[in-house]
Amino acid sequence: MNKVVASADAAISDIKDGAVIMLGGFGLCGIPENCIAALVKKGIKQLTCISNNAGVDDFGIGLMLKQKQVKKMIASYVGENAEFERQLLSGELEVELIPQGTLATRCMAAGYGLPAIYTPAGVGTEVADGKEVRKFNGKEYLLEYAFEADYAIVKAWKGDTAGNLIYKETARNFNPMMATAGKVTIAEVEELVPAGELDPNGIHTPGIYVHRIFQGQQYEKRIEQRTIRKKA
Amino acid sequence: MNKVVASADAAISDIKDGAVIMLGGFGLCGIPENCIAALVKKGIKQLTCISNNAGVDDFGIGLMLKQKQVKKMIASYVGENAEFERQLLSGELEVELIPQGTLATRCMAAGYGLPAIYTPAGVGTEVADGKEVRKFNGKEYLLEYAFEADYAIVKAWKGDTAGNLIYKETARNFNPMMATAGKVTIAEVEELVPAGELDPNGIHTPGIYVHRIFQGQQYEKRIEQRTIRKKA
Amino acid sequence: MALTKEQIAQRIARELKDGYYVNLGIGIPTLVANYIPAGIDVVLQSENGLLGMGPFPFEGEEDPDLINAGKQTITTVPGSAFFDSALSFGMIRAGKVDLTVLGAMEVSESGDIANWKIPGKMVKGMGGAMDLVASARNIIVAMVHSNPKGESKLLPACTLPLTGVKCVKKIVSDLAVLDVTPQGFRLLERAPGVSVEEIKSKTAGKLTVEGDIPEMKF
Amino acid sequence: MALTKEQIAQRIARELKDGYYVNLGIGIPTLVANYIPAGIDVVLQSENGLLGMGPFPFEGEEDPDLINAGKQTITTVPGSAFFDSALSFGMIRAGKVDLTVLGAMEVSESGDIANWKIPGKMVKGMGGAMDLVASARNIIVAMVHSNPKGESKLLPACTLPLTGVKCVKKIVSDLAVLDVTPQGFRLLERAPGVSVEEIKSKTAGKLTVEGDIPEMKF
Description:
heterotetramer; A: alpha/beta; Glutaconate Coenzyme A-transferase; 8-stranded mixed β-sheet; 6 helices; C: alpha/beta; 10-stranded mixed β-sheet; 3-stranded mixed β-sheet
């Protein structure tokens, strides 16, 4: 079962204007840098992007915003991006804000074939507007629907030709759930190995969820907040 | 955060008659052998056991059945056990059969703080009797509630003193979800190591879900169906 | 002549397509793995938590931690992955498994299936069957056409407690290959030497026979 | 004198108990990690997927794949574990995290909290705050008692859009420690040199003061 494609360009070649795309990552950590670059190069427009954050002005999804490729952004937190703010205030960009745990769990639900979940997040707030509220064991929950995307684009540390993925540290974040939630799932990895080289016990995303895989050409891995302590 | 207890006896010492207990494993694969032996020795009765299977006559949960410690068995498949059948037909034992995926997902729901899930399994069958049926995208689903237990008893391959667990091969099965679903979760492991020795990227069950851990004295790991092929 | 179990499995194997993820049930369906056509790359899913199931181990190489859903000792192939039962049924429920093959006691002309319970007999449980039939995108049933008393198991409606409703897409029995359509069973192929008349007489549910019905070759 | 941010963090740290799993929000809550009392073993959860968060790295040892929920470079302690965002919020939702500390713009006397949105200003989003407040078993809020205009932020009812309802259990402000009870705020401790009268005058919501109110010591 060989799922390897030649490049980021090849991986995203059939994504069209108006597509709904999930992009893994938390802040700039664990984002599919190579696919984002390819999407910017390809220049497709009117995209709906589902991602926890929207990048910064000159990196991550911010690069797509700068090209005005994004029609709608679905995220939990969109600070750190002046161009984003400008487009939002001018009405060029539509934004839907979703609690982070709800976003993660809605993606997971899609991958588990669960049509909806009940979560207490947002009960009694404007997030609950128009949503079904249901009590279980005396506590109120909102009904939230599974999230599927035309394409899920994720970034892993290691992957094999069968599509199995392993993530590194907190660069895992949203990538595993999004990988399960794409009608087509594209994975870019730092290191691509032949099937059989990864420990089957340590796979985070089984290959059945991954349709295309390639090794990214390079990773900048920009740090958003470089915090350090002094050596004693 | 040291969660180590001295032995299986110590781990289960506070389990009382009438407790609801989850036991990991699929068939005889990945079952908590040492805790089962301790439960048999302790002789507590009237237990409700939630486990995918009920063991065989002289191993696994079958040992507890033989001692008439089990009042109710909740499982997906209970073949391979003559004593089980005898107690069931005589009315000594109560049995609730649940589709395997539903059982797994109800345990997972507890660990994820989801009060209920919707699954298509059992729609239109007697499993649906008395349950809420709801349509999503034209397909019918049953509402099934999260499963919690007084004690979840699981078996892992490796564990550390902080309660982090790694399972081996298909001995993983129900253990990870059940580990998340216990009010008290007890883990027995083949190899217990100090915190820091396991790869944090490869942990299957984070220690936050585990309350007590110990290294099992020995593992028989009985094989239920020894199937082999001839060397050419 | 009616097909042997091996031939039923062999015929089902011809339904496999390159790139398929396949879940094979216990019994005849397990045998399908022995007949995967050359040049066809499929990955076998075992619902107890494995993608990439391989053949039985050589004697002395059995691993008690490595079994299939029938609790048999197995091996893995390169590129395999282990996971827990929740994710296993998650990928099944999400429709990621391309084909599910399982046995049946009865199938109805509308695609209902009964394969887990016989009233009056000890009930062992449904295991993963209800999850599989409710979720699989494509289900092929391997079965014998009639019970030992000669009564048809392809019925207008199932008489046994159901495992799932309107889910079976195709049946490979010892006598025939049939599709389940909105108009009931449709005969596609017959076993070598078995006549259309015999299949008709042994199919209690509505059966459509159109044109020439080819004989299976082995 | 009003407490400094460091002192607020220091006071909150005294609420930690041995064996606690703790989630610390961005801002003052993050500082709590610097004041964990000796002999108290707590595990820090970062909702982007880590149990066992350690201090900031030494210069040159920053790892871009290892950050906290504030996107700061961090380290891990022995016994740490990484997981995905769904499991991270799963353990939060399941009540496995013993204590959550976060900041607030407003808290009401019934324990409602507002900390994510100011009408008319750019809304950055709630991040994980709504999940945390809806699920945490025990929430302590770190905040300043009044806004720069001198208006109380401990109110009969929040004026800003809510993050969660009836969830805050305790508040450590720059002036006082207060519980949220069914009868409204209850004063527990006052900042050094701050009078009960001052706290009363700066608390707009219902406030109960019973007996002698001790002064915090640092």
